[in-house]
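sorry to bug you again but im stuck and you know this stuff better than me. theres a chain ive been looking at and ive put its sequence and its fold in token form underneath. id like you to explain what the token line says about the fold, in plain words if possible. anything you notice is useful, everything is just below.
___
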Amino acid sequence: MLNNKKRILINKFSITSCFKQSTSYIIIISFILLFTSCVVSAQWYDPEKVDHNANTIYSLALNKAQNDDYPTAIKMINEAIKIEPKFVDAYLSLAGINANMKNYTESVNQFEKAFSLDSVYTYNYLLPYSISLAGTGRFNDALNAVNKFLLDTTINDRSRKAGEFRKGTYQFAIDYANTHPGKNYVFNPKNLGDSINTTNLEYFPSLTIDGKKLIFTERINGNEDFYESDLNDKGVWGKAYPLPGNINSTTFNEGAQNISQDGKWLIFTGCNFPEGLGSCDLYISYLTKTGWSEPQNLGPNVNSEFWESTPSLSPDKRDLYFSSNVPGGFGGKDIWVCHRDENGKWGEPLNLGPDINTAGDESTPFIHADNQTLYFNSNGHECYSEKPDIFVTRKLPNGKWSKPENLGYPVNTIDDEGSLVVASDGKTAYYSSDRSDTKGGLDIYTFQLRQDIRPLKTLWVKGQVYDKKTKQGLPSSVELTDINTRQLISKLQTDEDGNYLVTLPVGKDYAFNVQRKGYLFYSENYNISSTAPDSTFLADIPLQPIEANASIILKNVFFDTKRTELKPESITELDNVVRLMNENPKIKIVISGYTDNVGKPSDNLSLSKGRAVAVVNYLLGKGVNSARLSFRGLGETNPVADNKTEEGRALNRRTELSIVSVE
């Protein structure tokens, strides 16, 4: 017999834990008190008639379970069952303990043993049974079970609300499976092993662009620090070690972090730092020759008196995504973004808007190497439970984000899904989880993403910006634009030697634009839409010093065939010329128009002159002094390619800018 003390102890695990977030949905025997009034006379099982010795062992086992000693509790309950083979409450408690351990298959087995013994006494346990069924991915069976549970007209309002909520999540799971591909998809997360995972907690994985450095957070005795593991030539992760330098030197917690794709910046969450503006702020550390620098607070444009955390830096280091509960959003925690200007300063946060953020919580954003695909977690969109799921959204040509899409089961489950990062290959994902094969608590795992929820495939683009005359590398800003949509895909800063490395979505052609004071701007179109994913495209960029006789071809000035009117897509290029003239008020230029050799030479001469005039008129309209401008039409003369091919003729149809003088 259960004494009153034990009844009180068990009763705190109420059915509300099936609806609210709780880590204590465990001891399912707790429902005995809640549903005592519902048990009808047709049941045969009577808890008061359980063998005394079995009941004593069972009561002691519950104490063990209350103290999270689940293995001992399970062992003792099985001893009680040996004495009392039809101990229904014992089977129900085994089901609850296994559910809390996420051993959902075993939980279902134990529920069904209890149901087979007395279907009347156990009727009201159909709700937690349905949750365990959902934990195994059996959503149709879970829906049937909760529907049966809801047929009981005697359950209280709170229990009915919990049942209706679960019914909605199961139906969502069924509908999702029916509308998304994935019959051949195998979800098989691999624990990254002893080199990375320990009996401590490991979480928040972050990768460099080449996938060879893994940075993560480890909690040891309550203190959070950053560790690194390096991938060797055989594809094996090396033994993790604390990040060198000053980044781990504080006595405070360094939490959620994100390493820049070039491996040179680390932005992370620091909580309760003396100089902090709020409870948790975002900090940055730089990789130096002696390790990571002392962290710097990102300042009041990024941080507030509230909570900022879970940062994600775009591949070009221009956009910083993070989660914050600062007022002015749509719910508890929202995802925000700050943009970095030309001077390296972060602008004020911008909310990603109601398509992304909800009345619930959104957190752990991750922007992929394609700079177009954003993953995040949320409990405000349709989920598999009341806990956060992981979603994906994609940047549209107009700069807005697509409707978030749930990643679906089995990536998302009835349990809490935290952060997800995806390697530059677009298919290899990393996340932290406390799965059954964990080394201890949260471990880091890797798995392959389902095809339809992957980001865009990318290719690597690398090169150097350098002085065309001296060959010396030049630190510069490089803009990469989708030629077809004119959407800015990436805007990156080279290192001090002018070197850059970036990933770009495949299947597109790009315009490269570089501006640097004292040099003519660079503008080039690269037809790389057929370049294979994961390959490397080399694009070195020579800049010409501003001096007499220096010239460039205006690659992005466009006209219709046999027309002299500028096409709208020419404006960006011509505005670069305006900027050049404004920054160098003493230079004088000449605009030269050329054609191919198709048609009469006289017509081509007239056409080329008209096009040159159109460019000059645009510059005049922008305020450039006419004394600094001249033009000429040169027709089909001075070809730069063979006019016998269409490719060659296209190159010969061009507009050139040449510097006449710099004084």
In short: The radius of gyration is 32 Å. Residues 1-41 have pLDDT under 50 and may be disordered. The chain has four domains: 4-179, 190-453, 457-545, 548-663. The first strand starts at residue 190 and ends at 191.
